[in-house]
Amino acid sequence: MGNADSDIVFQSYGRCCNNEHFFIDFYDRFMSSSAEIRELFIDTDMPAQRHLLRNGIMQLVLHSRGLPDTKLKALGNSHSRTGYNIRPEWYGLWLDALLDTLRKHDTHFDESIAQAWRRAIEPGIQLIRGAY
Ligand code: HEM
């Protein structure tokens, strides 16, 4: 993955991450992708969760810029079978929901930005999913 991807993604996220509606739309999409996923968040404080996800996505972006993976390892732990028990196949739905939400909110979004996002954050997602 080149540094170019990470720059594109950093700027793309910068155009979205200060907008609360970005995270509201993300969870609307993500939860509508499966009843099982919706159930996982029944007791969740969603305003707090949206804030945590803002940081979580930033961790994926920073990882693509070469920052240490300590925070992603902690997420791998909390999402594993001994934690929230997030099944590996759900991460594809998570990424689809993220890309759909970026398409809606990032005013510069196009297919090359989508591909840059995939290349940049897939290794970090794999790290979290792989801890299952
Ligand atoms: C790589 C993608 C993901 C990132 C970056 C991410 C990020 C986060 C963060 C930052 C938290 C709060 C910190 C923590 O509790 O450890 C969290 C909690 C959580 N995540 Fe994820 N997550 C991802 C994927 C998923 C997926 C695929 C699911 C479900 C299918 C999921 C379900 C949950 C649940 C249920 C919680 C706890 C909510 C609560 O406290 O009630 N996450 N996630």
How are the secondary structure elements laid out?
Elements: H1 3-14, H2 20-32, H3 35-40, H4 46-64, H5 70-79, H6 90-105, H7 111-130
Helix pairs in contact: 1-4, 1-7, 2-4, 2-6, 4-7, 5-7, 6-7
Bound molecules: protoporphyrin IX containing FE (HEM).
3D architecture notes:
There is one protein chain. This protein is mainly α and 132 residues long. The chain has 7 helices and no strands. The model has no long low-confidence stretch (mean pLDDT 96). The protein has one domain (3-130): Globins (Globin-like), CATH 1.10.490. The longest helix is centred in the C-terminal third of the chain and has 20 residues, at 111-130. The protein has helices spanning 3-14, 20-32, 35-40, 46-64, 70-79, 90-105, 111-130. It binds protoporphyrin IX containing FE.
Q: Uncertain spans, ≥5 residues at pLDDT below 50?
A: none
Shape: globular
Query: What average pLDDT do the residues reach?
Result: 96
- Residues in helices, as a percent range: over 70%
Task: Sum this structure up briefly.
With 132 residues, the chain is mostly helical. The chain has a single domain (3-130), classed as Globin-like. It has helices at 3-14, 20-32, 35-40, 46-64, 70-79, 90-105, 111-130.
